[in-house]
Amino acid sequence: MTDKRRIFAVVLLAGLLRFPGLGSTPPGVYVDEALQGYNAYSLRLTGRDHYGQAWPVVTKLFGSYSSSLYTYFSVVPVGLMGLNPVSARISSAVSGILLVLLVSAALSPLTGLIIAVSPVFVYFSRGAFEANLGLLLLVAGIFTSQKAVRRQAFLPWGFALLSLSAYAYHAERFLSLVFLGWFSWTARRAGLATRSIIISLALALIIQTPLLWLSVHPAVNTRLHELVIPGSPSQKVVAVVKSFGVYFSPDNLFSRPDPDIQRSFPDLGVFYWWMVIPFLAGIWHLFRSQPLSPKSRLMLILLFLSVIPGSLTRDYFASLRVLPAFFSVAWIISQGLSWLKVRPVWLGMFVILSLLELYSNMVLLQHERSSVWNYEYRELAGFIKRHPDLPVVIDSSRAKPVYILLAFYNRFPPLLFQSQYPSSWLKNYYSHPEFDPDIEVLNIHIRPISWAGDIYRDQLLIGDQLAISSAQAEEHFLELVAEFRDINGHPALTAYRTHPQSKCRATQSTPSSYCRDNIR
C-alpha cells in the first residue's frame, strides 16, 4: 500500500471515530460548550458576545476568562447548521481530523494512526474543547516553521500559526512564545536572511499584541491565580517537580482515566494499555539514537515543555492542559512500533481490539455520565418553552450555570442578555471576572429556592432531589408536574407547581404575610 493510500485510510478511520453520533456522544451539552456555541450564535446575529462585547479578544467565562478563537471558528457552523450540539462541536472534530492528516503527511501514517485511535485525541475531538483547536494550530506552526529551515518562505506562515494558537488555549500562550524564540534561533543558525526572521517576528508580534496587552490585566488571569499551587516557595517547587513526574507515569498514561470525569472516557486512560510496550521501546530507541535528529530533538522539546503548564497547577493530572505532550508521546509510541518491526497483522489486531474498547466506552459514556453532560437539561428547556406564561424558579444551590444551557437549547435572542449590561460596564469588560449564578430572564428565575416565600406564589419550582424532597412537596402542597430523567431513566430534576391557596388554608392559624396580602 502506498503512503497516499495509508494516509487516506488513517484519515478515514479518524473521521469515523469523530463524526458519527457527534451530537449525542457525549450526551447532552456541557456548560462550557453551551457558552462557546451561544456566543458564536450571538456574534453571528449581533457582532457581540452575549454580554454585549464586540468581538472580544478573550471571552468572559463563569468567574474567569476563556480563549475566544474557538468561538469564532464556530460562527460559520452555527450559521449553517443552527445552534445545536453538532455545530458547537464540529470545529473540534474537524481539528482532530486535520491533525491526523497533518501528522500522517509530515511524520508518518503510523504516527497518524496512533493519534487517530488514541482515547485522549478521540475524546477531545468529540466535544467543544478549544485545546483541540490549539493543538492543531500549534503543531501546524511547528511543522511549518521547521520546514522554513529549507524553504525560507515558510517562516512567516509558521510564526503566524504559532501566534494564532495562543488565542485558542492557555497552554499555547506559553508554548507559542517559546517556539517563536526557538525557531528564530534555529533559523539564524541555518543561515536564513535576517530580514526574513525580523519580518516573521514582527508579524507574530502584531498578531499577539492584543493578547499580550490583555495579559497585564489581573482579572483576565483570574483562572491562573485560582489554579496556582499554594504554599511557600520551597513547597511549590517540590509540588511542581512531583506534578511534572505525574504526567510521565505509565499508570496515568496507559491505565487510569483523567480524575476529571468530564475529560475522559469512563474506563480508558490517555492511551491504550498495549501501547506501553512500544512507548518504552520508543524511549530506548531514542536513547540509543545519538546524536538525535532535529525532528527527534524537536519532539522531545515539545514533550517536556508541554508538561510545564499542567505541572504548575494544583490539579493532580489535567490531560487537557498538556495535550501537546500527548502528541509527542504518540510519536514516541510510533517510533517504538517501527523499531520493534511489529507486523501489520499484529498491529491490525491491536487496532481492532482498541476500537472495541473505544466503542464500549462510548456506550458507557452515555449511560454513566449523562448527568455530567447535562443530558436532562434539553428536556427541561423544552418544558420551559411550552410554559411561557408561568413564572419558573430553578434552584441554583448546586446547579451549574443553568441559564446558558437554556439559552443554548431555546436559542434565546442575545439581546435578552446584552440589555442587562450597560455601556459603562462594557468599557471595563476585561475587569469583570465575577459571576453571579442568580439570573432572571423572561419568566425564568435562576436562584436558590426561598421556602419562606416561593410556596405562596403560583409558579413552577424546579430542582434536583436535594432541592425539593417528597416530604417538602407534601408539606407545602406542591404538585409534581414533570420529571426530567437521565439517559437511564433515573429522575435527575423535578418540576412542581405551587398551590398558594391550599398552603394558606392549611396555615390559617398562623397565616403568613403572603397569605394576608395576596390570598382573599
UniProtKB/TrEMBL annotation:
It comes from the Bacteria. Keywords: Membrane, Transmembrane, Transmembrane helix. The chain crosses the membrane at residues 69-86, 98-121, 127-145, 197-216, 270-287, 322-340, 346-365. This is Glycosyltransferase RgtA/B/C/D-like domain-containing protein.
